[in-house]
């Protein structure tokens, strides 16, 4: 590993990456002066996922609930740790066009 080159380049590679995906307001000196209203975490994560073919911050997917196969749950897993993940549970998915019921948050830990 060329540590002197890393030191020389400093944060430039990261700043170029941020610029290429549109912006990252928390990395900006002028948080409120940026396009805060137009910026979307969902869009930014989609761009990063498409570019690097990896889930960047969160891995999310809908799957059948292991405890009740008639229900579906939304798994939300941090990329930081693969041993535990959070689960958002939707009571029952209603028919299209109807009002969604509240989502309850639980956490499952797998060993």
From TrEMBL:
Q: Name one Pfam family in it.
A: Peptidase_M13_N
Q: Quote the SUPFAM superfamilies the UniProt record gives.
A: Metalloproteases ('zincins'), catalytic domain
What GO terms describe the biological role, i.e. biological process, of this protein?
A: proteolysis
Output the superkingdom of the source species: Eukaryota
Please report the stretch or stretches of sequence annotated as the Peptidase M13 N-terminal domain: 1-79
Q: Which InterPro entries match?
A: Peptidase_M13_dom_2, Peptidase_M13_N
**What is this protein identified as?**
Membrane metallo-endopeptidase-like 1
- In the UniProt record, the gene name given for this protein reads Mmel1_1
């Amino acid at each position: 590993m060329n540590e002197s080159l890393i030191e020389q380049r400093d944060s430039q590679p990261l700043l170029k990456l941020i610029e290429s995906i549109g912006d990252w307001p928390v990395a900006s000196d002028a948080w409120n002066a940026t396009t805060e209203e137009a910026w979307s975490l969902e869009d930014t994560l989609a761009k990063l996922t498409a570019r690097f073919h990896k889930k960047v911050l969160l891995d999310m997917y809908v799957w059948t609930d292991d405890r009740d196969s008639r229900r579906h749950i939304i798994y939300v897993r941090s990329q930081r740790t693969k041993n535990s993940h959070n689960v958002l549970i939707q009571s029952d998915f209603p028919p299209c066009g109807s009002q969604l019921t509240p989502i309850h948050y639980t956490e499952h830990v797998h060993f």
